Structure formats: C-alpha cells, structure tokens
Automatic annotation (TrEMBL):
Domain Bacterial alpha-L-rhamnosidase N-terminal: 177-348
Top-level lineage group: Bacteria
Enzyme Commission number(s): 3.2.1.40
Protein name (Swiss-Prot/TrEMBL): alpha-L-rhamnosidase
Length: 918
C-alpha cells in the first residue's frame, strides 16, 4: 500500500452502505473509440476502446471484459469476431483498451461491442459501436489532384486588408449501378462546405480544423451513402479562405505566415451492391467560378454576400456551368495528409438578442445580452440591391456607439445585399466574431429582435461540468469562464475571438487547459494541439510561443513553451492518456535539453520573455505595470518553472518506462536548480523570495522548492502580502495566478482563497462581473486600460481558479496515483466561506457528483461515485459518532475508518451516498 493511503480504509461491499432494496441493474454505455463520438476515418493503427458501466446498485467493480470486433454489422450480430475476439480478460480496466486484433486495413470498417463481468453480475452493451479506418498511405492520395484557382479574380485585392472571393466548384458524375455505400474524403483549404445533389453534407462549420499547412493537412470523412443515387449526381464545394489564405497578405511577412490560395483534394469511394467499386477524384474536369455571392470572407474583417449573384441549383444536376472555368491543377500545400482526429466546429447554441436601440446617426445597436462568439443570422425583407451592414463589438462607448478601439485593425463587419425575393434568411459561412453588440444599418424601417439570432460556434464537445454555490459572484464568474472558454475553442485554443490576433498562445493555457477540462471534454482538442506544438518545434529543439506558428514567435522562454509539457500532464491526469506522453516525449525531452544547453547558467534558468504577464498595474490606464516592486524577476519565474517541468518529465519517463538515465538526469538537474534557487533568492531574514512579490513566493511553495523549516514562514509572509499589503486582492499576473488558489488552500488558508474568488472590488474576477463582464477580461483593469490590449474575452487570467472550484470547493479530484478518476479524492474545504456547493463532472468513467450543504446543526453531503471507481472521502470531524452514511453509523473497527489529522477518511466504492456529519 502506498504511503499516501496509510490512513484510508477500503469499505467492504457487503456492508450496509449499499442503497436499501437496490436491484442489480448494470449496463454498459458510452462505447467510444479514441474518445471520439464519430470515429470516421481514423488513422490510428491500434485504436483505444473505452466504455462506462452504469448501475443503480452500489459497489460495482468490473472484474473482466470481452471485446468482439467484426468487419461488418452482420458478422458482429452473430458474434463472428473476424477482426478480434479479446477473449475474457480479467481486469478492472475499462478505458483506453488497445485494439489487439488483425491489422486494420486502409478504408475498412470495424464494428465492436463489449461484455463485462462485475462483482454484481455480468452486463452487455446495448449499443454497437463503429469506427472506420482512413486513408493510411500517401500513395492513395497520389493520383488525386489538388485543384483551385491560384490567383485573385478581378474583384479581389491582395493587400494588408485582402479581399478574396469564395471559390465554387462542381462536378457531375454518373453512377450506373445500385449503390451499397459511399464515403467522401475531403481536404478543403482554407475552409470548405461540401454539397451533394444540392444538400450540404454534415453539420460542421469552419472545417477543417486549422494547422500549419506546411506540416500537416487534415482531411474529413463523411458517409454519403444516403445522399447518392443511381444515375446522375452532382458534387459541389465552396472554398473559403480561413487560415490558409492569410487575412493580412503583404503585411509583416517576417512575422505572419501565408500559405497560398484556397484549394481542395477529394476522393469519393462508391461500393455497389454487386460487389464492384468506383472511385471519383478531383482533377481538372471539375468546373470552378469565383463569381458567386460570397464576395469576400475574412476572419478578421467579416463576410460580404450579394444575394443577387446566387446561382440556384449550382450543386444540383443540370445546372448550366458553361460560363465556369475548368479548375486548375495546383500545387499541394506541402504538409502530410492526416485524418482529423478531433471534431469540427459546430453551431453549438443560439442566443436571442435582448434589445435594439436607434442611434442619433440613424443606425441601430443590437444587444445580445452576452459576449458570445459566432455570428448573427439575419432575417430581412427589402428591395433588390438594399445592403444590410452588421458591425460587431464587445462593448459600447458612453454615447451608446460601438467601442471598437480594442479591435485594432479588424473590421469585424458582415454585409448582405438583398435579392428582393420575399423574406431572406442569411448567415455567414467562413467567419466568426467575438461580440455582444452589433451596429445595424441599411434597414428602411426599424428592425425588431426577431430579425436577428445569434449562433454560438465552437468545437463540438460535450459540456461535462456544472457548478453552483451559495456565492452569486462566484457563480457568475463560473458562467463568464464557461462562455469565454467555449468561445475560444476554434480547432485550437485561441487567446481571443474579436481583434486582429486570435492566436493559439501557449502561455494562456499552461494550467488553463486543466481547469477547462472540468467543464468541457477537451481531450481530443488538446491532443491535437500538442501535435501542433510538436510540428512547430525547430530542428534544434526550440518551441514557439504560438502554435501552430501562424505568427513566428520563438522567444525561448520557459513559461510559455512549457505549456507543451503541462498540457500533456493534464491529459494524463484527467483522461489517463499515456499515449500522448509516449508520442510527445521525444520532442519534450529535446526541448528540455535545448533549454538546458542554451540557458541553464550556474544551475539557474536565465531566459524569460514575458515575466508575470498582466499583473494588476499601479495605474488603471496602464496595460503593464512599470513598478519594480510589483514585477517578479524573470530568472525566478523561469528557474522555478523549469524545476517543476523537470519533475513532470521524471514522472513521464517513469510512466512510459523511458531510459533510466533520463530519470537520473532530471533528478540531478532538479536538485541543482533547487539548491541554486534557494541560495540566490531565499532571504532567510525576511522569509521571502526575491523582491517578495506574491508570485515569487507562491511558485517555490507550489513546486515544493522551499526548505522544510522555512515553508510555513514563507507561506505566512505570502499571506501577509495578500491579506494585509494587498488588502485581500489579487496581485499576481498570468504566472502566479496559476498556482495561487490551490496553494493558499493546501496550506490551510482556503478562506483567503475564497476572499480572492468572491471579491467585487479591483483587482479581482468579481470586479469584472461588477462592471458588466459576461466573459473573462484580458486585463484586471480591462474596462479602463489602453485599448490596444483590453480584450473582453480572454481566459488566461483564470489561472487555477476553476481547478480550485472543483478540487477544493466541490471536492472532485483525480488521485494522481490513479489518473483518469479511477480513484477520486473528495476533500472540499467546507470552512472556506461557502454554505453550499452543487457540482458534477462527467469523467471518463462516468458522472461524479458532490452536493454539500452546511445546515445549522450538521453538514449534509450527497455524492455519486461512478461504477468501477472508488473515492477517498474526507469528513470534517474526529468523532465517528457524528457520522452517518446512508442513515447508518460507522462501526468502531480498524477496517471501517481511520483518522487523518482533523478528518475521518473513508474509502467508498461506487454508488450514491448521503453523508451526515453532526
């Protein structure tokens, strides 16, 4: 038994803690391959299979499983597992089980199901799951031609503010036999929409996800069996610009990457009922026009659409395309072709506006009531040639007009020109906006709220977490975080959705990704992002600050590039993903070696670029503080962070059983860095580090760098800085805030963390709420700072706040010894300041719930522990006589409970429990 578990006990299943009169209803659900909801076209040769066990009886533990995988549904239905029969495997593992059958072949189907045995009986999955293999070799794409129109049209312009019209492509085909099945494999760059016989294929938007197209290009796969018919069919695509045709052409070429004009490659595989097949590929027989209704589409500047130029039936049979050009054969983008293993973006919700007001200039201001990301659907009647203009912004000036100074040179404007044919409904295809307010012009009569509907757009992923508490400020902060996080998921995590930036900055997500993982199932998004970072690594090992490296920022700091390692650690901790460590470890090691070789001097990491970014400045108009007393030495930041990363790399090396010399090296360097750090920066006279900023003290405390006999002294000094000097307010920037809330709580001052979380005065998260924020600001003083950097929808200042919400306030934490919530640590800080918390989190094993409430005479705590897991439950009492579990008292027996300091610690098996502590 591990030392950390000495004071726990295992509750025997036969004891009275099970729900009375429960029936053994056990089922297997949520069958997933590679954690994908729709695993079409995967290119993993040994995919991982997972499932959840659902039951209404307590203490259900899997004892064995059997997986059957077949090449057809018919075979699986007869239990003919021609691809893999795992046999009965005695184990409690139910997630990330590797397929271990026959080699999976190019473009072949696989159907699977699982049967499990538990200590309470056996269960079969009611569902049958399916996955299909993608195009596994470059040779299969070789005869497929990339097509497009590799120059601007007459109405386009290439400049700092480029205008480039959408490309429309079509191809009529003749399928002469009865169709059994058909699939499309498509790469449409920068963005595409696919049509067959006039119908759009799929509900994705802004597809595919962005990458550095010189490194890799993602293809999407669609089953189009039901869209095709015997005889004539028409394939059609619209190509938008996206990140491929970069918005700012001929502008800062030393910084901003450009990739070329929109282009596409596509394969349609058709299987006929007689067993024969046919393949249709893109070539120069396709027809193309740039003279369609989408005049321009630009992520920063908006979309312009002229309905008078609509080409009715362009993607259907019989359309007259005589005036269209033959598509040109164009150069492929350069990156390797890969199946997209993360979902596309979708319209994930709708927002109805709350008001519309006229301005003195004759325009109207529409208020959505919520800072959101996506676009506006327009409903309008008018005359042919009328143009409706919609300009987007996050806030208003005092005179009620749009505040656009913080957008920099982003135009954020959509224009729709009417065709005059009754009510017209339109929304853009290839842009997104970050906005709460919209300036509307062009209506001949006053528009009403029914003319507009907000569409919320982000990566298709499940919302997995809920949180509600007795403090309304904290609840609103949670809501603001929810809206900010999802709005900034765009096939990669971006910093902001509104100005001319929208870049995947690494430093914004160092611990942010960890907190986000409690609210959203972001596993595949961040696994993809780690590939982006790896692909952006320089040959000698450098990691950029932005990845994909659309902006060439290679600063060689630690705190930004180190996100590569901390995000991998999050995926391991929250999702038990060891494969991501195996895949990324060589590149991570290469970067660690690069930093050590170039910047480790006298055992201290000397290179830092950004400092403790965005500490609250001394003046409300400043973006960054100029007061040396508020700023933390960069060497302190980089050395402490590098020490922490050495510990994570040691863990990774252990998990994947890397060369033992790696572990020894990480240990050796860590010991040297720790000694040098304390020798130089620990002031034993003042019990502080460096210049005594909160960040300078919290990092060595959080990373266990402080000598044992100074820990409490340094902590108390830090508390004085927070509680007295800063009057109970935040004084940390992006770096310090990542560890502040948890460290305060771990050292016994959850009440001070609660004060920071619930404050309403500057600087605080609550100050944002009090000043009308509905997302999280970029700056603590985002309502007063210089407009060049005051985005009102950033997430970087959340730090570890959301982690603290779930792990310390709700008590939902994965035991580091058993990643993926196989064992849950449930230890809320009941005395921090809240009187109740209701929280839930859907882990990979199932839903965890923690609902507690402090009454006048007792604490009532309802918890749910998923089947096939257990939980260490910390009860805030020393007396077992004060505890009831499901209306029964604990028994005085050494194997029933144990005491840890001021807690009774119970290890409960899966199930539902009501705990009362008097």
């Amino acid at each position: 038994m591990k030392k950390s578990f000495v004071y726990t006990f295992i509750l025997i299943a036969s004891l009275c803690f099970s729900l009375a009169n429960a029936q053994n209803k056990i089922s297997v659900t949520h069958l997933q391959c590679e954690m994908l909801n729709n695993p079409e076209g995967i290119d993993v040769l040994q995919p991982r299979l997972s499932w959840q066990i659902q039951s209404d009886v307590n203490d259900v533990q899997q004892t064995a499983y059997q997986i059957l995988v077949a090449s057809s549904l018919e075979k699986l239905n007869t239990n003919t597992a021609d691809l893999w029969d795992s046999g009965t495997v005695a184990t409690d593992v139910s997630v990330n089980v590797f397929y271990n059958g026959k080699p999976l072949e190019n473009r072949k189907e696989a159907y699977w199901k699982v049967k499990v045995w538990t200590n309470k009986g056996e269960a079969k999955a009611d569902e049958i799951a399916h996955f299909s293999m993608g195009i596994l070799t470059y040779a299969d794409w070789k005869s497929t031609r990339w097509i497009g129109y590799d120059k601007p049209s007459e109405r386009d312009s290439i400049s700092q503010f480029s205008r480039l019209s959408a490309r429309y492509l079509r191809k009529e085909i003749d399928l002469k036999k009865q169709i059994k099945s058909a699939k499309v494999y498509i790469m449409g760059l920068g963005l595409y929409e696919l049509y067959i016989n006039g119908n759009k294929i799929g509900d994705q938007v802004l597809a595919p996800v962005p990458t550095d197209y010189t490194k890799n290009v993602k293809y999407n796969v669609f089953d189009v069996s039901s869209q095709l018919k015997e005889g004539k069919n028409t394939l059609g695509t619209i190509l938008g610009n996206g990140r491929f045709f970069t918005m700012r052409q001929d502008y800062k070429p030393y910084k901003i990457k450009t990739f070329g004009m929109p282009k596409m490659a596509m394969i349609l595989d058709v299987k006929y009922t007689d067993g024969t097949t046919e393949t249709i590929k893109t070539d120069d027989t396709w027809k193309l026009t740039t003279d369609g209704p989408i005049l321009s589409n630009n992520e920063y500047d908006g979309e312009e659409y002229d309905a008078r130029k609509e080409m009715k039936g362009w993607s259907s049979n019989g359309f007259n395309d005589a005036s269209w050009l033959n598509a040109s054969l164009v150069q492929e983008p350069g990156g390797f072709f890969e199946a997209q293993m993360t979902p596309n973006m979708k319209i994930m919700g709708e927002v109805k506006p709350i008001s519309i007001k006229a301005t003195s200039s004759g325009t109207y201001i529409l208020d959505m009531g919520q800072n959101m990301v996506g676009w506006l659907q327009l409903k309008v009647k008018g005359n042919r040639g009328d143009t409706i203009t919609m300009k987007f912004a996050e806030s208003l000036q005092e005179d009620g007009s749009l505040y656009i100074a913080n957008l920099r040179d982003a135009q954020t404007t959509d224009r729709y020109t009417l065709n005059g044919e009754g009510e017209e409904v339109w929304e853009p295809r290839f842009v997104f906006h970050g906005f709460r307010f919209v300036e509307i012009s062009g209506f001949k009569q006053k528009p009403n709220l029914d003319n507009f509907l907000g569409k919320v757009v982000y990566d298709e992923m499940k919302t997995t977490g809920t949180f509600d508490s007795s403090n309304e400020t904290m609840n609103q902060i949670f809501k603001n975080a929810y809206w900010g996080i999802r709005g900034n998921y765009k096939g990669m995590p971006i910093d902001c959705p509104q100005r001319n930036e929208r870049q995947p900055w690494l430093g914004d997500r160092t611990t942010g990704a960890y907190g986000e993982s409690f609210i959203f199932n972001n596993q595949t998004l961040y696994a993809k992002w780690l590939d982006d970072i790896k692909n952006a690594q320089t040959q000698d090992g450098g990691i950029p600050d932005v990845a994909p490296a659309f902006w060439r920022y290679y600063g060689d700091g630690v705190t930004w590039p180190g996100t590569y390692i901390t995000v991998a650690d999050m995926l391991y901790q929250q999702f038990a993903d060891t494969e991501v460590i195996k895949k990324q470890y060589p590149s991570m090691k290469k970067w660690m070696t690069y930093m050590e070789a170039n910047y480790l001097v006298d055992d201290l990491m000397t290179k830092d670029k950004y400092g403790d970014w965005c500490v609250p400045p001394e003046s409300l108009e400043l973006i960054r503080s100029k007061d040396p007393a508020r700023l933390t030495d960069g060497e302190v930041l980089s050395s402490a962070f590098y020490y922490n990363l050495l510990g994570i790399m040691k863990k990774f090396a252990t998990v994947i059983e890397a060369d033992k010399t790696d572990i020894a090296h990480y240990d050796d360097v860590a010991k040297r860095v720790k000694k040098a750090f304390n020798d130089k920066y620990l002031n034993v006279a003042t019990n502080s580090y460096a210049n005594n900023t909160v960040t300078a003290n919290v990092l060595p405390l959080a990373f266990d760098m402080v000598p044992e006999n100074y820990k409490e002294k340094v902590f108390q000094n830090m508390v004085h800085e927070v509680e007295v000097t800063k009057e109970g307010h935040i004084s940390t920037g992006v770096i310090g805030t990542q560890f502040l809330m948890r460290t305060l709580t771990d050292f016994g001052r959850g009440d001070l963390a609660f004060k920071l979380a619930s404050n309403k005065t500057y600087p605080s998260w609550g100050y944002m709420v009090e000043n009308g924020a509905t997302t999280i600001w970029e700056l603590w003083n985002g309502n007063t700072a210089d407009p060049t950097m005051n985005s009102q929808n950033h997430v970087m200042l959340l730090g570890d706040l959301l982690i603290w919400y779930y792990e310390n306030m709700a008590g939902i934490k994965s035991n580091p010894e058993t990643p993926g919530f196989k064992q849950i640590i449930m230890k809320p800080d009941f005395n921090a300041g809240l009187t109740y918390v209701n929280a839930s989190y859907e882990s990979i094993h199932g839903v965890i719930k923690s609902n507690w409430k402090k009454n006048k005479n007792d604490l009532q705590w309802d918890i749910t522990i998923p089947s096939n897991t257990s939980a260490q439950v910390y009860l805030p009492t020393k007396q077992i006589s004060e505890v009831q579990v499901n209306k029964q008292k604990l028994v005085k027996s050494s194997n029933i409970y144990n005491k840890v300091n001021d807690f009774i610690v119970v290890t409960l098996p899966s199930g539902n429990y009501r705990i009362i502590v008097k």
